[in-house]
């Protein structure tokens, strides 16, 4: 079973400068740490609804890394993860519905306080789909707690994740196979409720400039998010990522 949205991944050029920019935008940013492969490090912005934003930067050239291709297009929203109850079961269930996920694959991170975290991921066959991130160590060690929820900009969680897709019908089918729920479809978009958040699949026919920009610069994938109770209508110009109220 896939329970909820887990987190959104935002590529940044330099982690220290990104932390300063997001702090100036009213977020409380928690230190993350270095990932097990040594290629990336991160910082986290967590919310009371259990979701979080991951600011991630490369520490070295890593052409083998899934997200390295996004470096050419520059900073911005690049991916998002869902939280399974059990990664192995979620992968097997998706396979039974005809969707082959690559995983579970072990991963981890060392926090600045030297605590080692472990998780499993599973990766989708197409970029319109999210990856899965299931914890081995307690999730409370991975996600910053209430001490980091006091964002002065009012943000309380992730309300929507907007995904740019080229073929809405095909993407709806893949999401149905992953989640076991058929998205509610409209002429140019489809919506899936997952926990306290909603995933919105949106095609170029919508005319959404974020969709068109994503498809032009990066191909299919996450292109915008809306945050609960954010006091500013659009932080895109300030942060270089489509983060809106």
From TrEMBL:
InterPro entries (alphabetical): Glyas_Bleomycin-R_OHBP_Dase, Glyoxalase-like_dom, VOC_core
Domain VOC positions: 1-58
Pfam families per record: Glyoxalase_3
Top-rank taxon: Bacteria
Record's protein name: VOC family protein
Taxonomic lineage of the native organism: Bacteria, Bacillati, Chloroflexota, Chloroflexia, Chloroflexales
The species this protein was found in: Chloroflexus aggregans
């Amino acid at each position: 079973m896939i329970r909820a949205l887990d987190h959104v991944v935002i590529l940044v050029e330099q982690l220290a400068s990104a932390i300063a920019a997001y702090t100036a935008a009213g977020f409380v940013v928690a230190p993350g740490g270095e990932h097990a492969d040594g290629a990336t490090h991160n910082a986290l912005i967590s919310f009371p609804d259990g979701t979080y934003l991951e600011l991630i930067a490369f520490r070295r050239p890593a052409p083998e890394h899934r997200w390295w291709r996004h470096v050419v297009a520059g900073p911005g929203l690049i991916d998002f993860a869902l939280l399974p109850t059990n990664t192995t079961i979620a992968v097997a269930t998706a396979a039974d519905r005809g969707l082959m996920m690559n995983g579970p694959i072990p991963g981890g991170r060392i926090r600045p306080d030297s605590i080692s975290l472990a998780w499993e991921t599973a990766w989708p066959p197409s970029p319109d789909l999210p990856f899965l991130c299931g914890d081995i160590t307690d999730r409370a060690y991975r996600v910053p707690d209430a001490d980091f929820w006091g964002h002065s900009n009012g943000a309380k969680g992730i309300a929507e994740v907007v995904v740019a897709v080229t073929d809405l019908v095909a993407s709806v089918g893949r999401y149905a196979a992953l989640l076991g729920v058929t998205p509610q479809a409209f002429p140019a978009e489809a919506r899936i409720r997952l926990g306290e958040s909603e995933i919105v699949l949106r095609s170029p026919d919508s005319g959404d400039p974020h969709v068109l920009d994503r498809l032009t610069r990066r191909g299919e994938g996450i292109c915008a998010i809306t945050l609960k109770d954010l006091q500013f209508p659009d932080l895109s110009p300030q942060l270089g990522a489509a983060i809106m109220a």
